[in-house]
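Lay summary. Proteins are chains of building blocks that fold into shapes, and those shapes determine what they do. In this project we predict the shape from the chain. Here is one chain we studied, written as its sequence of building blocks.
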Amino acid sequence: MRKKVLLPLVMTGLSASLTLPLLVSCGNSDKIPLRGQTTTGDSPTANTMLTEGRAYQSSGKSRKALSTYKDIVKDYPNSTAAPEALYARANMLDQQGELIKAFDAYQELLTNYQASNRYSTALKRQEHVAHAAADGVIKNSFLGMKTNIAPSNVETMLGQVRDNAPQASSAPKAQFAIGKVWQQSGNGEKSINAFRRISSDYPESPQAPEALYQIGETLILKTKKGNKNKANYDNATNIYNELIQRYPSHKRAADARKRIKSLGGQEIQRSFNVAEFYRKKGENKSAVFYYKEVLKKSKSGPLRDQASQRIAELEGQ
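And here is the predicted shape, written in a compact code that computers can read:
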């Protein structure tokens, strides 16, 4: 005797929680509609369906194959065929470019079938899918095109990759990709926060010095886009100095030194420009103040010479 009852079907990853009707057996049946268990057993019916699904897939009947694989996991979640079907479904979606659906299918396998021999491969494929989604966002943002996947969804995917194996090299790599996605999407604050997490949580990773450098670059970019707050220059300088101190032999340390020198030159030019502005308005006291700032920030050079000359002229009036 079989009756229809409602059981919660909780999807993992980016999918929502659903409540769907499932058939629950009151007698003997090889259907075991209990989700979230990692123990498996043999099911002749599930094995037959798995063979059918593979036949559909081989003959190019993708929709039937995907549907069959989905039914196996739904109706026989504790069978040995379930993780095989779930991996096959995830792999098909992966190849079709259905990145979010593929990601969720891999995540369901990683969550519910940790003892499966598909686990390690699914972990790697899920990482590949998440980075493919990130690359798409970064590329489209660079080209000024609208991306099919929102940066927030990509962050969720990469965050799951990070958390699935927090001690693996994939973790800081995923975290760095989060920073790049937000950086390219124009969200400087989220980008900086993502990069900063690498230097704090994964200081020994290959991505750590590069993350610090990208924080500095993001701060400079903010000044170029109109937010010419002196604090951004100062913060960038501090970040570059931190990079030099923590990773002195890294190639980015040399780049950081060049950036600091460049920022210093920009600050001198900025002070000189402000001084000229006040001089032309006839506000000599303010002009002299900023000309003296040029002297403080420079040891030599044409701007220093001009500032000294202007000070002498204004103070002599």
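What the prediction tells us: The mean pLDDT is 85.
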